[in-house]
Design a protein that fits this description.
Number of helices: 7
Distance between the termini: 67 Å
Helix content: 55-70%
Strand content: under 5%
Shape: rod-shaped
Radius of gyration: 28 Å
Number of strands: 0
């Protein structure tokens, strides 16, 4: 396990104390801030060993190591904040235009020989019209449910 030396400046210590007082901090963020204060070596040496800090704060030694890594990488904000996603979220397949086509298809006359549109028939029609590459009947159902559309 790598040995980290955390030396907090006076401004960082004040920032940590201010952040600890905020009510919107979660329990985990508060614990990480307390761990950071316990790891501080600015007075000469660390007050507690890693094992004692883990017991005292109710966290694992891996959490303490992670707090050290985050502090080294980005300071106090990196310790409290959440990591940014490395991959962006997948964009929604159903946009406003697709919803409009689903509703328009639902409201149009059903195919010849059918009394009403089924979810699968609507999904197939949307794909055949080239609106989307693929869509499930469940997605069609959810769109219609969201819009309170009636298939009759």
């Amino acid at each position: 396990m790598q040995k980290y030396h955390i030396r907090l400046t006076k401004t960082e210590q004040l920032e940590i104390k201010k952040r600890k007082q905020k009510k919107k901090n979660g329990i985990q963020a508060t614990k990480r801030l307390n761990v950071l204060l316990d790891l501080d070596e600015s007075t000469g040496k660390r007050r507690y060993t890693t094992k004692k800090i883990a017991i005292r704060q109710g966290v694992s030694e891996a959490t303490i190591s992670e707090v050290c890594k985050r502090y080294e990488a980005g300071g106090v904000k990196a310790v409290v904040g959440r990591k940014e996603r490395q991959t962006p979220p997948i964009p929604a397949k159903v946009t406003g235009d697709v919803e409009a086509h689903i509703i328009a298809t639902c409201c149009s006359a059903p195919p010849e020989g059918k009394a009403a549109w089924s979810m699968q028939m609507i999904a197939d029609k949307i794909v055949l019209d080239g609106i989307v590459e693929s869509i499930s009947d469940e997605t069609v159902r959810l769109v219609l449910k969201k819009r309170h559309s009636n298939r009759t």
